[in-house]
Known about the structure:
Elements: H1 5-12, E1 35-37, E2 40-47, H2 55-69, E3 80-84, H3 85-88, E4 99-107, H4 114-127, E5 132-136, H5 144-147, E6 157-160, E7 163-166, E8 169-171, E9 174-178, H6 193-205, E10 212-218, H7 225-233, E11 238-243, H8 247-261, E12 269-279, H9 296-304, E13 308-314, H10 316-324, H11 335-358
Parallel strand pairs: 2-3, 4-10, 4-11, 5-9, 5-10, 11-12, 12-13
Antiparallel strand pairs: 1-2, 6-7, 8-9
Helix pairs in contact: 1-2, 4-11, 6-7, 8-9
Amino acid sequence: MTLYPKMILDALATVRYPGTGKNLVEAGMVEDNIRIEGMKVSFSLIFEKPTDPFMKSIIKAAETAILTYVDKNVDIVGNITVKTLQEARPEPGKLLPQVKNIIGISSGKGGVGKSTVSANLAVALAAMGYKVGLLDADIFGPSVPKMFQVEDACPYAEKIEGRDLILPVEKYGVKLLSIGFFVDPDQATLWRGGMASNALKQLIADAAWGDLDYFLIDLPPGTSDIHLTIVQNLALTGAIVVSTPQQVALADARKGINMFTNEKVNVPILGLVENMAWFTPAELPGNRYYLFGKEGARQLAEEMEVPLLGQIPIVQSICEGGDNGTPVALNSDTVTGQAFAELAAKVVEQVDIRNREQAPTKIVEIK
């Protein structure tokens, strides 16, 4: 029998912590360090304080759940370690120390082309010569494997400096990881928020991302536990919000901007991307038809005082490229390829501005 971390998490989701009534996974008590060697399983449980009165009973219940719901032959007894909350939470910035810039790509609602923008921005940045990684953090609707035509990829782990790390898939110069590589694409992913967050943390912390100039995170639409997990565990350089020009999408984009700029989150907004800005027929590249309204995202950018990074038109080739795994950004000679090249250049410019603003000022003593 082959064991997987999801099997362990599913078993632990049957154990409830008496203090909150939530199961261990939902309560975020399972650290993202599940180690599996054959039938031996080990991991850490996180408690608020070392004097927690339920500690021993919870450890025993966790062992029993794994033996009951996974396999009675699992070597788990005595392999569960304990951490307190302060020890378990990594400081933002401690994870991915070899990554220079981490950018979250978000949208207030689904269907605005956020994943299309993420995939093509990654390809455009790679074409500029940067080392790029793309994490598909849309746990419940992963689309990156299809957009890069790597649905059959099976990432595996390799021992690197004493740790078993997942090796990202590489295509078009971009390192890729997605929960879509590890679940059945024909089945719905029925996970509670805590389980999804733990899976995501594993894709971040237990993967061999290596040296990267840009690490793009394709976030789920709206606001959720996933966004909080990202903010709590990573020091984001900034966020990009994607919207269409129509008012219903702009209203949700406004909420997304407010979420990132909230004082409890405090992530800089690098800018807004207006997707589906206009329709341009391939045979009439000079014509523009504003199907969803005109300049809506530009007006929102001015209102919210954030940069407008780019306007991406609707062209049939974008849809075809996403479906057949060849992002349009691969060809910078086309209208859409040029649009994504310009978007990438704008993102680099905004990141440079942000980094200069955050750089410490050097005081020189004048004698």
